[in-house]
Amino acid sequence: MPHSPLYECYQREAKLTEFAGWNLPGQFAGLTPEHQAVRHSAGLFDISHMGQIELMGNRILWDFNPLVPTAITHLQPGQAQYTVLLNPHGGIIDDIIIYHQGQPGAKLIVNAACSAKNLAWLAKHLPGTCQLVNQVLLALQGPQATGILQTLTADVLQAIPRFGHQIITTKLGQIWVARTGYTGEDGWEIQAEPGVGQALWRELCDQGAVPCGLAVRDMLRLEAGLHLYGQDMDETITPLAAGLGWLVDWDKGDFIGRGALTTQKTQGLAQKLVGLIGTGRRIFRPGYPVLAQGQTVGRVTSGTLSLSLGRPIGLAYVDTHWAKLGASLTVQVREQELPVTVVKRTFYTRPG
Amino acid sequence: MTLTYPAELHYTASHEYVALTDGLAVVGITSFAIEELGDITYLELPPVGRTVTCGERFGTIESVKAVSDLYAPVSGVVRAVHGELVDAPERLAEDPYGIGWLLKIQLTQPEETQALLTAADYQAQLGG
């Protein structure tokens, strides 16, 4: 099983797990200390398994624009946009971030398991070139992330806004940093050559960043109300159903899947993604039925016990009638029906 | 956590252990099971006085990673339940063979204990 170039940095301290065909850290010191680190200081994740795709083309943003429902042609070099690739049925091929590097280049960071299909899709629809690259990717997340990263560089990191990105010079070499992440915290995603990435991992740990695994990353992203591809959305789900309607710019002109989305918008949605919060400590897991008045009205797609809230939280698709904020439903957790309330999907928002 | 399998205990293939003392079976789950589950979040145990049958489900244990059934390693009557652990199930991981006990069962079929695994058998199964 492939492992990341950072493997040798953490192999003795991490509990490794298989993820999307990669052997990656599931956990280091444990969920609680890792969660605390990201929410209150800084956590460091190896995300090198994520797909890194470089796009080249003289009109790259204009060429890419019809592949996504979001208007992206206004992006300036150094800006980025979260969006989704859609199939002709409006289904989500993947959720991605496109980083405009300045013509003729753009960078995509995509889900690990979707890299190959994305690449094939892009090759089919883009006139320019696209290729996977294999650099180290790190995520440094938490309120102290910027301060820790700043110890390595004279470049002023605070000047880079959310979703901004640029190449910076550090004492370890040049790295690409983006003010993005998947934890609900301020923080950075960092791309580097393998050798630089290894030195960076060690240096960031020396500066106080706490190594974190994919288990806590899943809890953090769910607390922040962020979707996981393959669980909370897939090629049968449109952005409208997934609560990602804000990604659709109806004024942008044609894009793949537009007709299907228009039809869905006109006819209404059968089901919508909602946030659920429960009481007690039992976790609702993907596939568990959601009930109203004794009838199944949906199913859970993600669930965890939120360490921030001390309560079980989850995402579920439920019949639109039951998707209103405040609706009282139950989740069938094995032999028990546990009461839950429909709430905003952002379960945790960082202070300030 | 260091994985240990005390030689004086008896084990099941489903990762429960039994400590036999004067007709009482103290039941818990092994350090291997706890390691596999990860962060434990929820524990459901039967009430005192409930009759349990060897091989049948007597409870549930959940972690962030997974949910598992607990199976009675022996038949008998539940004489004690570790209620404090139900309120703080994460403590189970601190000492699975000490404070991590779950039930005390008064045996009704003492001969069933002969079918339990020795520590060596159990470890061999984990290795295989």
From TrEMBL, chain A:
Residues 11-252 form the GCVT N-terminal domain. The keyword Methyltransferase applies. Its EC number is 2.1.2.10. It comes from the Bacteria. InterPro entries: GcvT, GcvT/YgfZ/DmdA, GcvT/YgfZ_C, GcvT_C, GCVT_N, TrmE/GcvT-like. GO terms for molecular function: aminomethyltransferase activity; methyltransferase activity; transaminase activity. GO terms for cellular component: cytosol; glycine cleavage complex. This is aminomethyltransferase. The lineage of its organism: Bacteria, Bacillati, Cyanobacteriota, Cyanophyceae, Gloeomargaritales.
From TrEMBL, chain B:
It comes from Gloeomargarita lithophora Alchichica-D10. SUPFAM superfamilies: Single hybrid motif. It comes from the Bacteria. InterPro entries: 2-oxoA_DH_lipoyl-BS, Biotin_lipoyl, GCV_H, GCV_H/Fam206, GCV_H_sub, Single_hybrid_motif. Its cofactor is (R)-lipoate. Binds 1 lipoyl cofactor covalently. This is Glycine cleavage system H protein. The glycine cleavage system catalyzes the degradation of glycine. The H protein shuttles the methylamine group of glycine from the P protein to the T protein. NCBIfam families: gcvH, PRK01202.1. Residues 24-106 form the Lipoyl-binding domain. The modification N6-lipoyllysine is found at residue 65. Belongs to the GcvH family. Keywords: Lipoyl. GO terms for biological process: glycine decarboxylation via glycine cleavage system; protein lipoylation. GO terms for cellular component: cytosol; glycine cleavage complex. PANTHER family: GLYCINE CLEAVAGE SYSTEM H PROTEIN, GLYCINE CLEAVAGE SYSTEM H PROTEIN-RELATED. HAMAP family: GcvH (MF_00272). Pfam families: GCV_H. The glycine cleavage system is composed of four proteins: P, T, L and H.
